[in-house]
Design brief:
With 322 residues, the chain is of the alpha/beta class. 37% of the residues lie in helices and 20% in strands.
């Protein structure tokens, strides 16, 4: 596994901290469609002895997810990004099929250990639900699940051949929260069966999965995460290492050692299954001295998480037969 980090903000100080913490790969947000922008990001990352391994977040998707009149233009933009990544040697592109564009939460300041702040999702009273992250999507003409699947198949048939030619692997992120319907809008990618359907649509190493542990762990089915890693391992091209307390309709995020998942067993599951891809701490608590301007994405919690993950990885590597 390639220990990776999305640094926020993307500064020289944070890149240096990532290198000092033992990270090998950096995750960049969407760089736009100019190759030169991506090359500049890559060169800046490499100047700290790091690799640019993944592009994720803020990748434009809503037109092709919903099949609007601008679908094909947006797909062409996605193809340009993939080709640029191939040219720049960036191997993984993480995206989602969330019809509301990004993850949804109802609170950003629930207190965890020592007063650290974490996010919460609570839809026990649907009448009072209001998202405070991402795009608060409440369409008057929602896209049904059948159309979301049709749009996905169209997209994959268009994009996967380009990704294969570029040597880039796509990594589909699960819906977060993992619900089949939210605010009247269907959502289609929150179960292992849905992801098996996804990879079967276009059989290719470039048609992969971002295994977000927190998204699967917060599903109402409360999946066994190590077992699910083993099940989906052949298709995992990127991994998000995080955890939660609770499940839909109510959950909060947590420190990596205060949630409900056996995180050591999860890491071992990747290793035992031969998964070798970038893995990063995803949402982390906001710690003392941080503003909580970017909930889940501040650096202190990420650095704590990197040490936690490295400790688990080194322990399993030292155990004979693991």
């Amino acid at each position: 596994m390639k220990l990776s980090l999305l640094v926020t903000p993307f500064s020289d100080e944070n890149l240096q901290l990532a290198a000092q913490a033992g990270v090998t790969d950096i995750v960049s947000i969407y760089p736009g469609l100019e190759l030169q922008n991506l090359l500049e990001i890559r060169n800046r990352v490499e100047s700290f002895g790091l690799n640019l391994g993944v592009v994720e977040r803020y990748v434009p998707t809503l037109d092709f997810v919903h099949g609007t009149g601008d679908r094909d233009a947006q797909i062409e933009g996605f193809k340009t990004l993939v080709r640029n990544m191939g040219e720049a040697g960036v191997p993984v592109l993480c995206y989602s099929w969330m019809p509301d564009d990004d993850w949804q939460r109802t609170s950003l300041e629930v207190k965890e250990r020592g007063g650290a702040l974490v996010t919460e999702f609570d839809i026990r009273n649907p009448e009072t639900f209001r998202s405070v992250t991402g795009f608060d999507f409440d369409p008057s003409d929602p896209t049904p699940a059948s159309a979301l699947w049709e749009n996905l198949e169209y997209f994959l048939n268009e994009v996967i051949p380009v990704a294969e030619d570029a040597g880039v692997k796509l990594a589909m992120h699960p819906d977060d929260p993992p619900m089949g319907r939210l605010r009247g809008q269907d959502r289609i990618l929150s179960t292992p069966e849905a992801f098996e359907r996804l990879v079967a649509m276009v059989d290719s190493p470039s048609n992969g999965i971002c295994f977000c542990q927190g998204s699967f762990a917060s599903h109402k089915n409360e999946y066994d995460i190590p077992g699910l890693i083993e099940r989906l391992a052949p298709h995992i091209t990127f991994a998000h290492f995080r955890d939660v307390v609770g499940a839909v309709p109510h959950f909060t995020e947590s420190f990596h050692d205060t949630g409900k998942t056996d995180m050591a067993a999860a890491m071992k599951a990747y290793l035992d299954a031969g998964v070798d891809c970038p893995i990063r701490p995803d949402h982390v608590p906001t710690l003392a001295g941080e503003t909580n301007e970017f909930p889940g994405y501040h650096m202190l919690g990420r650095l704590w998480a990197v040490g936690y993950m490295r400790g688990i990885l080194d322990t399993w590597k030292a155990v004979p037969g693991s």
